[in-house]
Amino acid sequence: MTLRAVVRGVGHHLPARVVPNSEFESRLDTSDEWIRTRTGIERRHFAAEGETTSDLGAAAARAALADAGLAAGDLDALILATSTADLTFPSAATMIQDKIGMTGGFAFDVQAVCAGFVFALANASALISSGQARRVMVVGAETFSRILDFDDRSTCVLFGDGAGAVVLEAAEGEGTARDRGVLATDLHSDGRYRELLYVDGGVSTTRTAGQLRMQGNQVFRHAVEKLAETAHAALEKAGLNSGDVDWIVPHQANLRIITATASRMQVPMERVVVTVQDHGNTSAASIPLALSVGRERGQIKRGDLIVMEAIGGGLTWGSVVLRW
Ligand code: COA
């Protein structure tokens, strides 16, 4: 028997304010047409003044709990993937813990930028399979609008705010790829690529939050190469291949990256959950948001084999193979 981390509930939350591409046209030398054709993004949500990452994360966590039919007291742990925590400390995970009324167990943040949800999911799966926790909430929540340079057209049009969450629960499996739950994970980072995507401020340097800086075409090149590679590696660890995949649920950064990765994996776009047009790049929130929306649309069903893949600042990248 193998202990597997099985998804019991999923949910998401988006801030009310929707920002269409056209809003950038009045103040920057850009166009709806450029943004759509280069990125696939049509709109994104921005948090309201005073609306924080932990507010978005708590709303998504409550939705996931309701979907699971569980209460906050049923959770043993809460892991939040974010790069835009409310404060330098305490962790935004503990703020979400408080907001949902979870007074026991433990909570912590994971920082792997856009790959954060995949890293957090791998950690949650390890906690469950090692018997350290039975039920783990994994949240991805971000307010990237707070670290954007709204004078830089090459970055500010790409990102959005939002949150998604899954509740994982221990279940005994046979130890084969037919089991439900997390079947394999594959994680990587390489700090030599720091300059490609970073925020130019921080506690121990500038004492400010800073703004996002990116060499977009370089990140693009690494993404296309590394995402298909890590997805293949995770599938191989699970004893599976691309032909077994029901859904790719990719990090939603750019439609051209999503399409190129699916093509390298030889998975048709009909089997890819795409939400980037509505959310932009919500960093660590993008995969759980896409899981929740994909389930809502009726795309993701019990028993489906899902591959999640993501890349972000660091660089960090990785993938998770999971049977829903
Ligand atoms: N509107 C109009 N023109 C823009 C623009 C915008 N919003 N942003 C950039 N441009 C311009 C550039 O200034 C450049 O102009 P120049 O040739 O006069 O210098 C031109 O478009 C081409 O820039 P380039 O960066 O080569 O374009 P691209 O095809 O690589 O597309 C990105 C730019 C950012 C969309 C693309 O590189 C990308 O998506 N990269 C990955 C980013 C990402 O997803 N990062 C997060 C990963 S977690």
Structure, described:
The longest helix is centred in the last third of the chain and has 22 residues, at 216-237. The protein has two domains: 2-173, Thiolase/Chalcone synthase (Peroxisomal Thiolase, Chain A, domain 1); 181-323, Thiolase/Chalcone synthase (Peroxisomal Thiolase, Chain A, domain 1, 3-Layer(aba) Sandwich), CATH 3.40.47.10. Strand 4, helix 4 and strand 5 (106-110) form a beta-alpha-beta unit. Helices cover 31% and strands 27% of the residues. It has a five-stranded mixed beta sheet, sandwiched between helices. The chain has a four-stranded mixed beta sheet with strand order 8-13-12-11, sandwiched between helices. It has helices at 22-25, 32-39, 53-68, 92-99, 116-129, 153-156, 216-237, 255-264, 276-279, 286-296; strands spanning 2-13, 17-20, 43-46, 77-81, 106-110, 135-143, 161-173, 181-189, 197-199, 212-214, 247-250, 305-312, 316-323. The structure holds coenzyme A. Coenzyme A (COA) is lined by residues 30, 34-35, 38-39, 114, 153-154, 157, 214, 216-217, 219-220, 253-254, 281, 311-312. Residues 30, 34-35, 38-39, 114, 153-154, 157, 214, 216-217, 219-220, 253-254, 281, 311-312 line the site of coenzyme A.
